[in-house]
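Model the whole thing, not chain by chain.
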Amino acid sequence: MPDRQPSGDAERSRPTAGSGRRTPAAPPFSDLDPARWREYSDVLTGSLWILGARDRTGPHLGDYWGNFVPQIPYQIMRRFTRRGEIVVDLFSGMGTTLIECRHLGRHGIGVELNPDVAARSRERIARAHNADGVTTVVLVGDSTCPDTIERVRQELRSLGRTHADCLFLHPPYHAIIRFSDDPRDLSNAPSVEAFLDRFRRVAEHAYSLLAAGRFMALVIGDTYSRSEWVPLGFECMQICREVGFRLKAINVKDIQGNERGKGKRENLWRYRALKQGFYIFKHEYVMVFQKTVPAVSRSSRRVVSQGLARLEGSDTDVVE
Ligand SMILES: C[S@@+](CC[C@H](N)C(=O)[O-])C[C@H]1O[C@@H](n2cnc3c(N)ncnc32)[C@H](O)[C@@H]1O
């Protein structure tokens, strides 16, 4: 795992040699200047994520079974957000993403179904260092439900925005861990099909909440059922593509050392794997998607441009 060094954020622009004009140094979704790549040893660009031990900076703890390591939201926010922007997490759990939001100076809005977990996460998030004075909010709600999403929109509006700049989905991996007895909990979906149906609703909400051109991370693992590997990750990936996202990356993350309960039973698992012909899960996925900017046809661009030219009384050329 590279060292975490959240320094060296790019200046927003730098002069182009000789021209006197300024061109943007960093892509519009990031503070990182690609020309200064040597300074970003903490930022991953490869698809194999071996992150090592859980980062325990600030109030991060590994005590909520099913939380992801803070290095995941750290990596995504470093690459796909700018300081002061807004991150939404529709399965915020114990608040790992929102704690990282405070560490990195991004506003955060989380949704968590379980009121007790939401309350505990708020206490934890409040203890995180917040040098930039960002806002972090945890809503109790069901991310499949339009009313909950409307409340997220209200929070966005109160921050002066209509859309989020980055989005996280870290749903239950169907029934691998039962998070509650609540029937709305995705971990209580009665079948894989029912789980995927509910996940689709959340993915549609994610798409509507995210600003065009911006990025979403889906963190998900596969499951095993009735002697068969269930490719939950790829099923969810496909749903994200169907609702309109462009797939940018399938990052494979090493989960060794982050699993719970398996350590002492490793030998038993090896025995079972050899006997029953399966492989033991050692990875999960951090998939990255982009909401593409709606395409504008040449003809509509020409109409808009001609309209602007008339308004301005100038001879503006159509730039193709
Ligand atoms: C895998 S955990 C997310 C953990 C989180 N990334 C963290 O680091 O703490 C999934 C969370 O989704 C919550 N959840 C399940 N169904 C939900 C739903 N319909 N709406 C919102 N949250 C839900 C569960 O209570 C659980 O806390």
